[in-house]
Design goal:
Layout: E1 3-7, E2 10-13, E3 18-25, E4 34-39, E5 46-51, E6 57-59, E7 67-72, E8 77-82, E9 91-98, E10 105-108, E11 112-117
Parallel strand pairs: 2-11
Antiparallel strand pairs: 1-3, 3-8, 4-5, 4-9, 5-6, 7-8, 9-10, 9-11
Amino acid sequence: QVHLVESGGGLVQAGGSLRLSCAASGLTFSRHTMGWFRQAPGKEREFVAGITWRQLTSYSDSVKGRFTSSRDNAKNTVYLQMNSLKPEDTAVYHCAASGQWSTTYAYWGQGTQVTVSS
């Protein structure tokens, strides 16, 4: 059974930084694309960043240049470094994993709250 557990969320002032982590278990981590999504109150879930098993990254336009996704296959962990945070980045951030050798997300974590104050 696949488990994804996020950590690292919290309250930060605008302009600050946070690093989210997502520890994965129950899968061969290096064979999966990993992603980050977020959902703010009253809004739909949106894609934030992704990193393939080949370490290729992609970002939404709203975070490009501010957020960086990375992975450590030895630790079964994916990270999201978030810099220059804005109040509009406030949301619950969810980690996701694709199916093996896929880019379609199939597994989801419970999420971690990120709140950016102005």
